[in-house]
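Re: [ENG-882] Designed sequences occasionally contain unexpected residues at chain ends

Forwarding the minimal case from QA. Structure tokens:
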């Protein structure tokens, strides 16, 4: 069993999900965003808001599909390797070929340690960000759960009900055995909006994700993804981990005035802030991905990942 929940979660993600993370990574570029904002202002003279939104959506889908096209006739973990390498590089982790599952796990644990230190530092720097004082990746996962629950509580009742209803519908699609086991472990009689709200606000969600792997497996992941997706749709954030506003709020602030500075100061400032945004994005993405560690990965998948990594980034 892997010690790194991020590694287990990454192995359980489908290529389409990984392509969305890669597209989000590419989108976090101050220079390009500033240029796009300037062009959006100009093009807004003759295009409507809905037309611009449609164009942005199509552009996003095209980029996601572009990454998926690269996986044709290649390893199913090709995109996973690319994403891991980007995360490792942004936190200055360098290593050569990987020889074993233990070595791979150690590299992922090293990366988790780096992002824990970064989140602790940046959360104390930003006034509007809740302070993180934990020392483990499990602490970081709980920190993000707390952020999500706080945002859920701040939603209007009608918005909460939409999220809860999605949870109920997804859970009711499980087999009767899975559903009964879930109700037994969570000490509820029925799957309703009210029982789901009790789990979220009453602390049940924390118990589901205690430790490395979710206590109640896939049903817990269904609740989590419904919560992320629901909050994301209401606050208009497109990052994979929808509730994490650090990167998007900073991007909106910087891109509103950064274009003149880029012109005056060159690419140095653009690269500096792009790297910071991508570190924020990496933390959020790794936590989000780790919540798919509700099941461990088999040795065959790990070996294929290692083989793909060694072929893709051989010295």
């Amino acid at each position: 069993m892997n010690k790194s929940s991020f590694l287990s979660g990454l192995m359980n993600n489908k290529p389409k999900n990984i392509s969305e993370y890669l597209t989000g990574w590419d989108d976090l570029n101050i220079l390009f965003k500033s240029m796009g904002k300037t062009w959006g202002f100009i093009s807004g003279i003759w295009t409507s808001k809905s037309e611009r939104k449609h164009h942005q959506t199509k552009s996003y889908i095209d980029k996601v599909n572009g990454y998926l096209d690269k996986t044709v006739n290649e390893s199913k973990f090709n995109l996973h390797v690319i994403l891991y390498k980007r995360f490792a590089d942004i936190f200055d982790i360098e290593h050569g070929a990987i020889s074993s599952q233990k070595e791979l796990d150690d590299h992922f644990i090293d990366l988790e340690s780096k992002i824990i230190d970064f989140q602790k530092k940046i959360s104390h720097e930003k006034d509007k960000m809740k302070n993180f004082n934990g020392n483990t990746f499990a602490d970081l996962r709980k920190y993000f759960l707390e952020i999500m629950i706080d945002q859920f509580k701040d939603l209007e009742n009608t918005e909460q009900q939409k999220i809860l209803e999605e949870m109920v519908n997804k859970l009711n699609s499980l087999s009767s055995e899975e559903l009964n086991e879930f109700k037994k472990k969570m000490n509820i009689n029925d799957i309703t909006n009210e029982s789901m709200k009790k789990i979220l606000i009453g602390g049940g969600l924390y118990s589901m994700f205690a430790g490395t792997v979710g206590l109640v497996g896939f049903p817990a992941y269904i609740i989590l993804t419904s919560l992320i997706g629901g909050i994301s749709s209401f606050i208009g954030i497109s990052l994979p981990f929808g509730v994490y506003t650090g990167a998007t709020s900073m991007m909106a602030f910087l891109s509103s005035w950064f274009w003149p500075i880029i012109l005056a100061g060159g690419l140095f400032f653009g690269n500096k802030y792009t790297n910071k945004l991508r570190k924020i994005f990496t933390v959020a993405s790794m936590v989000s991905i780790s919540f798919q560690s509700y099941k461990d990965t088999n040795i065959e998948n790990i070996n294929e990942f290692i083989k793909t990594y060694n072929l893709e980034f051989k010295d």
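QA comment: On inspection the terminal residues look reasonable. The CA atoms of residues 32 and 255 lie 9 Å apart. Proposing we downgrade this to a documentation issue.
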